[in-house]
Amino acid sequence: MSWFIRFLRPCNFRYYMTREICAIKILMKLHDPPNMNVYPTPGAARGFVSLLIGMAMTIADVPMMAIAMPGIGADLGLGTGPLALIMGAYPLVVAMLLLPAGQAGDRFGRRRVFLVGGTLFLMGALLSALAPGPLLLAGARMLQGVGAAALAPQALAMIPRLFAPVAQSGAFARLAMTGSFASVCGPLVAGALMVAAPVWLGWRAIFLAEAMLALAVMLLASWRLAPHDGGTAGGSRPAEIASFAAAILCLVAPLSLGPVFSWPAPVFLLLAAALPCAAVFARMTAQAGSAALIPPTLLRKPSFCWSLVFLLLAVSAPPGFFVVLSLALQSELGLSPLQAGLVTAGFPAGVVAGSWTSGRLALQPLARVALGTLLLCGSFLLIHAILPGLTPTHLWPLRAGMLAAGAAMGLTVTSVMQLGMWGLPKLLAGAGAGAIQTMQQVSMAASIALSLAVYGQALETQTGLEAAATMMWLQISTTGAAALLALVMLRVSSFHQQRTEA
Predict the structure, then answer these.
(1) If phi over 0 gives left and psi between -120 and 50 gives alpha, with beta otherwise, what is residue 407?
(2) How far is CA 247 from the centre of its chain?
(3) DSSP run (H or E) holding 233
(4) Nearest to 128 by CA among 180, 69, 184
(5) How many angstroms from the chain centroid is the CA of residue 43?
(6) Buried residues in 342-379 as b, exposed as e (16+ CB within 10 A)
(7) CA 358 to CA 446: how far, in whole Å?
(8) DSSP secondary structure string, 308-377?
(9) Tens place of pLDDT for every residue, the chain, 502 residues?
(10) Half-sphere exposure (CA, 13 Å, Cβ side) for 97?
(11) Angle (CA) 362 363 368, round 5°
(12) Which of helix, strand or coil describes residue 32?
C-alpha cells in the first residue's frame, strides 16, 4: 500500500488549492466573451439576481421531481416504466441541447437566449401542471428541458460581462453556492408544496410553483439585464449539432422506452442508429477542428477522457438511487412527501459538505477520485444493508447513510471535474466544461432509466424496500468499478514515477 500512501500524502497545499480555484472558475465559464476586461455598470451587475434564481430553478427541478414521482404514479395510474420515461425526459433533453445552446448564446446574444429559455421553461411547467396523461406530461417535461438547456450556459457565461475581473471570483462562488442550496432545498420544497396543496391539486402544485418562479425570473431579467447582441457569427454547423443531439437521443432514449413498451424491435433499431449518428458527428468534428462542439484536441487529453469515464461510472450512480428511494419510502413505508424529503435531504446536504472538504484536501485529483469513489461505494453498501429493515419509526440509520453517501459524492464529483479540467489550455476550457456538464446530464438520464427498470423488475417478486436494495447493486457495482479503476491508475502512475526517479 506504499504506492497509495505516496499519493495520499500532502504534496503542496498552496499549489493544489490554487489549481482547485482556477479549475472551478474555468469550469463555470462555458464560453469566454470577447470583452472580459470591461467594467460593467452597476445596473448590469444587479441583473445577477435573475441569473442566480434561473440557475437554482433548473438545478432544483430534478430532486423536486424525485419527491413528486410517487404522487404522479398514483394519480395517473403509472408503473415504474412510464415514470422512468417522465423522469428521464428532462435530463435527456438538457444533455442533447446544452452545448448547442451555449453556442446559440454566443451567436444570438445571451440575454435573448436566456429569456427564450425561461419562456420555454415556463410553458413546459404550465403544460406539465395541466397534463392529463403520461405522454403529454413527458412532452411537457421535454419542453422544460429545452428551456433549462438554454438557461444554464447563459447564466454561467454572462458573469464575466456583468462583473469586473476582480469581482468575478466572488460571483462564481455565489452561483455555485446557490446551486448547492437549491439541490438541498429542492426535496423539502417539493414535499412542503405537496402537503400544503389541496388534494385535487397534489403534485401539480410543484409545476405551478416552477411556472411562477420562471415568470418572476423572466420579468427580473428583462428589467435588469442589459441587452447583449452576441459577438460571434460562426460556430458549429447545424448538421454537426443535429448529429450530436441524435447520437445522445439514440443512446439514452432506449433505456427509458424499452421497459415501457417491452423492448420492441424499433427500440433496438434506435439504439443501433447511435453508431451512424456518432460516426457523422466524429467526421464533422474532425472537419471543424477547433471550431467544433467538442474540439478533437480535447479528446487527446488523457485526464479529460478519464474524467468522462469516472462521470459515467461513479457520478451517474446517485440520481437513479435517489428517485427509487423516494418511491420506496412513500409507497412502502407510507411516508408523506415532506417526510421523504426530510429523510433524503441528508444526501444533497452531504454533497455540499463533501465539495467543501474536497477543496481543502492537499491531494492530487486522481487520489481524491480514488478516495471519493471508495467512500461512495462503501456508503451504498451500508444503505443496501439498512434498507430491508427500515420502519417508519426507525429512520435515523438511513439518514446517517444518506449524509455519508452525499459527502462521498461531493468529494467525488468535485475531484472528477478538477481531473477533467486539469492542465487544459484556456482555449479548450469552455468546450471541456461544456462536455463535462453534458456527460453529467447523459449519465443522469441513463442512471434514472436503468435504476427504475431494475426496481420495476424486482418489484414483481419483492417488497418495495427489498426491491430498492436489489436495485442498489447497480450503484455498488458501478462505483466499485470506478474505485478499482482509480486505484489501478494510481498504481500505474506510481510505477512510472518510480521508474523516472530511478
Answers:
(1) alpha
(2) 19
(3) none
(4) 69
(5) 32
(6) bbbbbbbbbbbbbbeebbebbbbbbbbbbbbbbbbbbb
(7) 26
(8) HHHIIIIITHHHHHHHHHHHHHHHHS---HHHHHHHHTHHHHHHHHHHHHHTT--S-HHHHHHHHHHHHH
(9) 444 444 344 343 333 333 343 444 444 443 344 443 444 445 555 677 888 888 888 888 888 888 888 889 889 888 877 888 888 888 888 888 888 887 777 778 888 888 999 999 999 999 999 999 888 999 999 999 999 988 887 776 776 667 666 666 666 666 666 776 777 688 888 888 988 888 889 899 999 999 999 999 888 888 877 665 555 545 557 788 888 888 888 888 888 788 777 788 888 998 899 899 989 888 888 888 777 778 888 888 888 888 889 988 887 788 888 888 888 888 888 888 888 888 888 888 888 888 888 777 878 888 889 999 999 999 999 999 999 888 888 889 999 999 999 899 888 888 887 788 777 776 676 677 777 778 888 888 888 888 888 888 888 888 888 999 999 999 999 999 999 999 999 888 887 777 777 6
(10) 23
(11) 130
(12) coil
| Residues 247/277, Cβ–Cβ less than 8 Å | yes
- CA-CA distance, 225 to 48, in Å (whole number)? 8
Q: Which three cell numbers stand for residue 13?
A: 497545499
Tell me the H-state helices in 12-79. Answer: 13-28, 42-46, 48-76
- CB-neighbour burial class of residue 166 (10 A; exposed 0-12, middle 13-18, buried 19+): exposed
Report yes or no: 480 and 377 within 8 Å, Cβ to Cβ. Answer: yes
Tell me the C-alpha distance between 149 and 140, whole Å: 14
pTM for the predicted model, two decimal places: 0.77
Cell of 260: 415501457
The C-alpha atoms of residue 466 and residue 460 are separated, in whole angstroms, by: 11
If one counts every other C-beta atom within 10 angstroms of the C-beta of residue 385, the result is 13
CA distance 142 to 441: 13
Nine-digit cell string for 24: 472551478
What is the C-alpha to C-alpha distance for residues 116 and 99, in angstroms, rounded to an integer?
16
